[in-house]
Amino acid sequence: MTDIAIAQSTPLLPIQTVAARLGIAEDDLELYGKYKAKLPLRLLAPEKIATAKLILVTALTPTPAGEGKTTMSVGLSDGLNRLGKKAIAVLREPSLGPVFGAKGGATGGGHSQLGPMEDINLHFTGDFSAVEKANNLLAALLDNALQAPGNPLQLDPRTILWKRVMDVNDRSLRNIIIGLGGKANGVMRSDGFNITAASEVMAILCLATSLADLKARLGNILVGFTYANEPVYARQLKAEAAMTILLRDALKPNLVQTLEGNPAIVHGGPFANIAQGTNTVLATKMGLSLGDYVVTEAGFGADLGAEKFLDIKCGYAGLAPAALVLVATIRALRHHGGATPAELNTPDVARCAHGFANLGKHIENAQKFGFQPVVAINAFSSDTPEEIALVQQLCQQRGVQAVVSTSWADGGKGATQLAEAVLASIASGTNHFRPLYAWDQPIKAKIETIAHEIYGAAGVDYSPKAEADIRRINRLGLAHLPVCMAKTQKSFSDNEKLIGRPEGFRVTVREFELATGAGFVIPILGNLLRMPGLPVVPASEGMDIDDEGVITGLS
Q1: Which of 239, 364, 526, 528 sits between 20 and 30 A of 50, alpha carbons compared?
Q2: How much helix, strand and coil, in percent to the nearest 5, is found in the chain?
Q3: Is 90 exceeded by the pLDDT of residue 102?
C-alpha cells in the first residue's frame, strides 16, 4: 500500500480524545475540524519544560528522496508510548514546494505517519499562508513607502533587501522587475521571490516566544538602506503590528496525532538548507510541557539541521537535548559508496562499506556536540543481513549502537528496540550537550569553525561581495549573532557532486543575507538558491482527486 492509502485506511481519533490523554480540556482547544486543533500558549509550563527529555532526530547526508527522519521520529514516539512512556512527536509543517516537487510531503511514511495526512501536507491550519501574507504585506508597505511623495524614509530602491515569497517551487520568479507600466504602478526596480519556508518571517515565527516577542522581532527586520547608507527597519514602516495580527493564530502550535493515536505537535516549517530547519520554539516547549519525552527532528543531514538546531535554536530557547538519534539507510550508504540512482536498491556490501565514511563523519560531529548518538537504520526491503551487520559492526567500533527500525512497515512495534536504545542512552549520563562555537566570536571565526569541524573543509573563501557584506555586518553591530549556513544538503561541501566524506575541499561564501529580526546572519555558500525549481516530472503530475474528494498520488 502507498503512504496515502495506509493513512486513508487508518481511522483517526477525535482530536479531543488525543488532547485528553495529555490532560488538555476541550475548552482549551481551538478546533480546526475533527482532527486538528491549535493549543493556547497558556498551557506552557516552565517547571515541566525543565524536567522533560528532548530527543533530537537527525540523519546522514541524504539521497534526493530523503532517508526517513520524520518516519523514524513518528515511529520512535509511538515506540516510546508502547513502552509506557508519555511521548510526543514535535515536528515541522510541510511546504507545498516539496509536496508538488520531488521530495514529497513531510508526515512520515507507511505505518509511522501523522494524520490527517492530506490536511497536514496541504493547507493544514493556514500557518504557511499567514507567513506568506505577513511577508508580502511588508513588501507592499515597502514599495508604498518608495512611491510616497518625497520618499519620506529616503529609501534607496537599489538597496532593498526584502523579497516577496510564495509556497511553490517557481524558478521564473527568482529575479524579476516590478513597477513596470508608469508612475502609477510604483517605482521600477529589481526584485524577486523566495519560497515561503525561506522567509525571515518563518524564521521569526519559529524563534518567537510570545506575541510581544513576535512583534518586536518583526519590527527588527532590516528591509534596506537610505541614500545615506543608513539601515531601514520594518518598524520604521510601522509594519510590525499589522504583520503580528496576520500571524496571531499561526503562533499557536498545532495538535494532531500519529496513526497509532498518539499525540503530535506540528508547527513551523523552515528548510534546513536555506534556513534553520527546525520547528518552533513554542512547539518544542509545548511538547515538553505536556509530555515526558519529546521527539523532534531537524531537516536534511546533521551538518545542516542538527548544527542549526544545536547552535541557534538551543541557544535562543535555552534547550539541551538529552539524546541524539542519527538516521541512516543502507540505500544512502550505497549512494555515498558510488552507486548510481539505478543501483541504489541493489545490495552491495563493498559500496556500503565505502559509503560508511559519510555516516562516520556525522557520528564524529555528534560527538563534538557532546552526544554519543544512537544510529537508527531505517529498514528497506532491499537491505541485506550482511550490509546491516557491517554497519552495526562499524558503528560498534566507534562506540555507537546501531539499531534497525522497521517502523515504516510495523509502526511503533518496529521501533521499540530503537526506543529502548534511546532510553538507555539518556539513562547512561554520557550525553552532555555543548555548542560548537561562542556567539561573540568574529563572523569569519564562526563560519570557519563550522566549515572545518562539521564539513571537514580545508578552508573558506569569500567573494568580494561577501567581504563587503561582512564589513556591513560589523558596521551594523551584528557580528555577535549566530550564523545560519545556507548550503546544499547533498554534500558536506558546497558542491553537491562531492558525496561521501570529501577531503581537501574549500567552501565559498558568495554573499550574506541578514535576518536581524530572527537574530542570525546567513552566509550563502556556493550556488545555493532560496527559490527552488520544479523537477522535469513534478510530483503533482501523479496526483488526482475523485468526485468524492479522495486524493491519490500524494506522498
Answers
A1: 364
A2: 40, 20, 40
A3: no
- Quickly count helices (H) and strands (E) in the chain: 20, 23
Kindly report the three-state secondary structure assignment for every residue of 336-360. Answer: HCCCCHHHCCCCCHHHHHHHHHHHH
Pairing of strands 87-91, 323-328: unpaired
Calpha distance 38→250 (Å, rounded): 9
Of 24-38, 98-112, 402-416, which range is least confident?
A: 98-112
Cα 236 from Cα 146, distance rounded (Å): 13
Strand partners of residue 189:
178
**332: three-class secondary structure by DSSP:** helix
Nearest to 329 by CA among 504, 55, 71: 71
Per-residue pLDDT tens over the stretch 339-392: 999 999 999 999 999 999 999 999 999 999 999 999 999 999 999 999 999 999
| Residue 346 CA neighbour count, 13 Å, CB half | 10
Nearest C-alpha neighbor of 498 from the set 507, 490, 506, 509: 490
Q: Tell me how far apart the alpha carbons of residues 324 and 306 are, in angstroms, rounded to a whole number.
A: 9
Q: d(Cα 41, Cα 39) in Å, to the nearest integer?
A: 6
> What is the pLDDT at residue 66?
85
Cα 521 from Cα 513, distance rounded (Å): 6
The whole-angstrom separation of Cα 104 and Cα 164 is 24
Give the residue numbers marked as catalytic: 69, 71, 92, 103, 272, 300, 380, 408
Residue 65 is predicted with a pLDDT of: 79
- What percent of the chain is predicted at pLDDT more than 90? 96
Tell me what pLDDT residue 11 has: 97
Q: How far is CA 142 from CA 70, 240, 248, 512, in A?
A: 38, 12, 22, 21
Contacts of residue 475, Cβ cutoff 8 Å, sequence gap at least 6: none
Contact 496, 279 (CB under 8 A): no
DSSP letter for 418, please: H
Please check the confidence at residue 48 and state whether its pLDDT lies above 90: yes
103 has pLDDT over 90? no
d(CA 354, CA 336): 7
